[in-house]
């Protein structure tokens, strides 16, 4: 948009202060570029384009240029150029008059009070756009263009209507909303202060107190809207029961309040506003976690528990649910920070809502720690079948070893006997595995407990490959035949007998026996060290 620059305004002021100025032409120029919406007509909101956007703006610039030439040049001014500008201005005036006559012919009906409120917003917008013109009203000349005087009167009238609405309590929500938008409140202050400073502003009935009353009213409006938005947001995200019916009428009113009187609404819903004001802190905290599915689930649980009692008023309902839900929420946060996070809570990982004061790095570190523990739990679950088969196969081979003695004594003394290191590791492995398997069946088990069980198991036996699993299956399948015979055979169990047997086989000419000898030595050595001894 084209707007008047400070330089242009200063040039206009200088023109207005000259006694030799052509007032007829100047009046015509201002009548074109300023179109005051004196009628309360919805189709009259075209004035801004005249003031800032149309070719009239450039007519004015040409006029200023011609005036400057006429003032400074010693030769005669360019009469032909000046005549062309005057001709164009007259044409523009005729076009504008035709538009005004057409508009007035179409709009002869009376304007309702509600339409007046809406039009007041348009008039205030116009006044704010015309604030730069106020500097033209401070010129020291004897005359001023009538249109500027009319503009000043229009601005005062618009502000007076606004202040009257505050005084008689008819100002509507839509007007308050407009004044709170963008920079309108500051524009209002600037406009009011500028009008008060005009020396010839004897008829201005509005004082600084009127402005302060309006500003105080707008503060109350902001609080009203804030409480309404809090209530609407919370009631949408946290479903309340019928015990909140005391606010249902207030909620319905808020859906279509634009053309309602704000002061009247304040008085009518005073009780509801007091209730919302008393629960403001709780509602604001609830609003902060509306994106958390976890919190909503905890809220629902507490709401179900509260249903067992009497139906409570809104304020008491909010206070109790807020207290109980945040108590559970804080307990859940502590289980995360202390590593006592439970399996049933794994889906609750929404750390950004739980710890809003933690930095991104701290949240990321906490998240990685939880993810690492969850990965270990998943690995434990995937290894559960293989480790179970390993334990079963080992117990089978151990059970049939006829020379094992004093098992209980060994178990009792393994901590102090370095020769029983393998047996000690085995007992630790079996104990950690059984503990982890037991934890998986309990929802109250923490991810820290389960991840520790995996660490203890994996420190002794990590992944069991497919070939090992096939061997373990064969041991279980042939427990009462081949395994029993092998574990009870003196030639395999007794070390001296085994060596004699291997020597006999080694002396054989059969090449296939040479491969068997190597495999038997490996198996015998491992079973002896890891199981029997």
UniProtKB/TrEMBL annotation:
TM ranges: 47-67
Superkingdom field: Eukaryota
Keyword Transmembrane included in the entry's annotation: yes
Keywords per UniProt: Membrane, Transmembrane, Transmembrane helix
Name this polypeptide is given: Viral A-type inclusion protein
Species assigned in the record: Reticulomyxa filosa
């Amino acid at each position: 948009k084209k707007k008047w620059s400070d330089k242009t305004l200063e040039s206009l002021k200088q023109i207005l202060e000259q006694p030799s100025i052509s007032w007829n032409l100047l009046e015509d120029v201002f009548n074109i570029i300023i179109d005051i919406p004196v009628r309360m007509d919805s189709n009259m909101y075209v004035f801004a384009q005249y003031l800032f956007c149309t070719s009239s703006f450039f007519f004015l610039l040409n006029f200023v240029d011609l005036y400057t030439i006429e003032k400074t040049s010693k030769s005669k001014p360019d009469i032909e150029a000046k005549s062309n500008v005057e001709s164009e201005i007259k044409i523009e005036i005729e076009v504008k008059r035709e538009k005004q006559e057409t508009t007035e012919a179409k709009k002869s009906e009376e304007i309702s009070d509600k339409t007046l409120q809406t039009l007041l917003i348009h008039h205030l917008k116009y006044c704010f756009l015309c604030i730069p013109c106020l500097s033209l009203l401070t010129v020291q000349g004897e005359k001023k263009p009538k249109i500027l005087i009319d503009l000043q009167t229009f601005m005062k009238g618009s502000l007076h209507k606004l202040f009257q609405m505050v005084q008689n309590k008819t100002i509507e929500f839509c007007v308050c909303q407009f004044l709170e938008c963008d920079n309108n409140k500051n524009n209002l202050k600037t406009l009011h202060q500028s009008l008060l400073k005009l020396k010839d502003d004897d008829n201005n009935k509005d004082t600084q107190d009127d402005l302060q009353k309006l500003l105080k009213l707008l503060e109350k409006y902001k609080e009203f809207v804030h409480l309404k938005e809090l209530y609407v947001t919370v009631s949408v995200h946290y479903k309340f029961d019928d015990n909140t019916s005391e606010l249902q009428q207030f909620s319905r009113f808020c859906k279509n309040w634009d053309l309602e009187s704000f002061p009247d609404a304040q008085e009518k819903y005073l009780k509801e506003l007091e209730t919302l004001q008393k629960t403001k802190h709780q509602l604001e905290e609830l609003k902060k976690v509306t994106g958390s599915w976890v919190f909503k689930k905890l809220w629902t649980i507490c709401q179900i528990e509260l249903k067992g009692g009497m139906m409570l008023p809104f304020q008491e309902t909010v206070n109790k649910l807020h207290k109980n839900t945040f108590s559970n929420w804080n307990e859940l946060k502590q289980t995360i920070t202390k590593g006592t996070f439970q399996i049933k809570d794994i889906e609750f990982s929404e750390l950004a809502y739980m710890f809003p004061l933690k930095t991104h790095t701290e949240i990321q570190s906490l998240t990685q720690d939880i993810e690492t523990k969850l990965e270990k739990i998943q690995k434990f679950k995937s290894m559960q079948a293989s480790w179970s088969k390993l334990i079963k196969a080992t117990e089978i081979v151990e059970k049939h070893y006829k020379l094992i003695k004093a098992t209980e004594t060994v178990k009792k003394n393994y901590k102090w006997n370095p020769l029983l290191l393998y047996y000690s590791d085995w007992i630790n492995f079996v104990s950690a595995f059984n503990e982890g398997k037991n934890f998986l069946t309990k929802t109250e088990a923490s991810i820290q407990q389960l991840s520790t069980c995996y660490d203890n198991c994996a420190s002794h036996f990590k992944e069991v490959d497919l070939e090992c699993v096939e061997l373990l299956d064969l041991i279980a399948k042939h427990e009462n035949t081949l395994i029993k015979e092998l574990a009870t055979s003196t030639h395999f169990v007794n070390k001296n007998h085994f060596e004699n047997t291997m020597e006999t086989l080694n002396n054989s000419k059969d090449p296939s026996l040479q491969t068997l000898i190597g495999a038997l030595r490996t198996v015998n050595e491992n079973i002896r060290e890891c199981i029997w001894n």
